[in-house]
Amino acid sequence: MKTSIFKGCNVFLLSLAAAILMASPVSAASVQGGITSVNSKTVAGWAWNPENTNDVQKVEIHIFQAGKSEPVKYIHVTADQYRDDLVAELKDGWHGFSAKVDWSQLSGNDFKVKAYAVKDGSYYMLGDPVSYSKSSSQSTKKTPPKSAMTTTADTSVAMVPPLTTVAAGPSVSPGSGAISAVVSAVPASASGNEQSLGIFSISGYCACELCGSGLGITYSGVVPQANHTISADLSLLPLGSKVRIGGIIYTVEDKGSSIMGNMIDIFYASHEEAMAHGRTEAEVFLIQ
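The structure corresponding to this sequence follows.
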C-alpha cells in the first residue's frame, strides 16, 4: 500500500512538472530567422522557434530610407507560409513569410529593410538588415536559410504599450512596475563612437501642468531646453547620457513615471509641439 502511494505521488509530481514546462513560454530569444530576399514587389524571409515548431511567429517589417533612423513603413505578417528551401534546412517548411511592397509609394531611391519577431510586446531582430534600391531588380543581399540559422535574434528591444506621458520633477519617483530593459549584442555604428540601442517608443512633453509638474525644472535640477532635453528610464540611460535620435543629439536630464524601458520623452518648448509629435518609433544611438 505504501509503495503504491509513493508511486502515485511520483506520477503526480512528474505530471505536474510536465504541465509547468508546457505552460511556460519558450524564451523568445531562441527565435531564429532572417530576410532572404527583397525585390521590386515583395520582402520575403523566415522565422521559427526551434524549441517549439508550433509557435507561429508574428513578424513586423520596418522599411527605412537610407540614412534615416525612423521607418517610413511598417508591415505586419505571419511566418506561416510554406517554402521548399526550409524543408531541406529546418525539416519543416511552414515558417516562411512574404509581404507585398509598393515602392512607388515611398519617396527616395535607396532603403534599408529590417524584420523583427514580435513576442509578448518585445521585438527580436531577425538576421541582418537588407539594403534595397529602386534602381535594382532585387536586394543587395540574399541570405539562404542555412547560413541564417547560425544567427539568433539576440537584439531584444522591450516595447511598452503607449501610455500617457508625465514629466517628473524631483518629487516624482518611478513607478513600481518599471521594466528592466536589456540591450544585448549592441552593434557599433559606422562612426565608431555610437552604439545602437535599438528601436524606442518616442513621445513629446513640455513644461506645462498637463505634461508634468508644471515646475519648469527637470529631475536633474536644470531648466529643460528644446532640441536638447529628454526624459528616459534612468536605470537604462542615467542622467547626463547623450543619445542621437535622427540628426539631433539629446541629453538625459529628466525622468517620468510612465517612461520605462525603451521609451524616451522629448522636451518641446510648447504643449502644441509636444502633442504634434504624438508617439513614434525611432532607432536610438548612444553617444560614447
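The first strand starts at residue 32 and ends at 38.
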